[in-house]
Amino acid sequence: MNIQHFENVQNLLQSTGLNWEVKKEPIIHPSGLVTDHYGLYRYNQGEDNPSNCFGVAKGRYTIFQNDAMADTVLRATDSLGVDVTKGGELSGGAKVYLQAQLPDAYVGKSDIKRYLTVLNSHDGSASIGFGSTNTVVACTNTFHMAHKGISKFRHTESAQYRIDQAIDRFKATILADEQLYKNFERMSEARPTEHIVQAVINGMFSVDAVKTKKEDISTRKANQLRQFAQAYTIERDLEGDTLWGLFNAVTRYTNHMVTHSTTEKKDEYLMTGGGNKINETAYETIMQFIDSNLASNPQVFTV
């Protein structure tokens, strides 16, 4: 590693708050018996004691440190001509991510910031995965999609192999992201029907607001439905009466109408938690509607 690259890695770790490491330490019973399990502990810079424990792993588990992740991502993105500009931690560092910025896009009536996202876990739950993260500038609605069709790579691979694999995964992620934006454009060109609106609402809240009697809807569900109705009104004014407006109503709801105690908790909710599930379910529901209806009767649904 040359000096300039080393400095770039350190600067990235510093700017993203990922300048700490994880240590695997044996778990010892109070009797003194050493078990075959290890705790995964976070050690902040300059501290001798761990700040928290992410989980437990077997002896063969290999830690993929933040500096190794930063080194891999920087080397891979250098070869592709994209810059790593963002990153952070989720769940106190149990998961960490880095993001490389792609050129901005324009869909419907909105500019969109686009990022390739690499997500790693320190709690033993997953290998290194790849996805797309985008933010609609006008309303700061963020949508993260984990590209499940792009295989992850393991912590145990050699450094050069990881770099080669990361380059391949980034290339595949760029192609997947391009398809994602083609689908966004298809949304912006199609009208919603009452059926698809209700299907999206049912997927979000597990309730059919049309068929279910008001007295059978809990106060919490009723408040959620009201909030989503507000979000949908706002997005239709911004984007028009399109499926893109409907999808942005979903992301407006998850981004701005669900309260969180910290920014980190909001990021976790949108990237790996309940908000991510709601957004991806709505995306899949809308795309199924487009694929099944526009091909057979496009003039009815085209804007």
User: Can you count the beta strands?
Assistant: 8
Order of helices and strands: HEEEHEEEEEHHHHHHH
Which percent range describes the beta-strand content?
A: 15-25%
Could you describe the largest sheet, including whether it forms a barrel?
A: 5 strands, antiparallel
Give the averaged pLDDT, no decimals.
91
Q: Provide the gyration radius in Å.
A: 22 Å
Helical content band:
40-55%
DSSP helical segment count: 9
Number of domains: 2
Task: Describe the strand arrangement of the main beta sheet, using strand numbers.
Answer: 4-5-6-7-8
Report on this structure:
With 303 residues, the chain is an alpha+beta fold. The protein has 2 domains: 3-184, no CATH class; 189-301, no CATH class. The chain contains 9 helices and 8 strands. It has helices spanning 3-16, 66-78, 159-188, 194-205, 219-239, 243-257, 263-271, 274-293, 298-301, and strands spanning 20-28, 34-44, 52-58, 83-90, 95-107, 110-121, 129-136, 141-146. The strands form 2 sheets. It has a 5-stranded antiparallel β-sheet with strand order 4-5-6-7-8. A 3-stranded antiparallel β-sheet has the order 1-2-3, with no helix packed on it. Helix 2 (66-78) packs across helix 3 (159-188), helix 4 (194-205) packs antiparallel against helix 8 and helix 6 packs antiparallel against helix 8 (274-293). The protein is globular and about 65 Å long. The termini are far apart. The mean pLDDT is 91.
Question: Secondary-structure map with pairings?
Answer:
Blueprint: H1 3-16, E1 20-28, E2 34-44, E3 52-58, H2 66-78, E4 83-90, E5 95-107, E6 110-121, E7 129-136, E8 141-146, H3 159-188, H4 194-205, H5 219-239, H6 243-257, H7 263-271, H8 274-293, H9 298-301
Antiparallel strand pairs: 1-2, 2-3, 4-5, 5-6, 6-7, 7-8
Helix pairs in contact: 1-2, 2-3, 3-6, 4-8, 5-6, 6-8
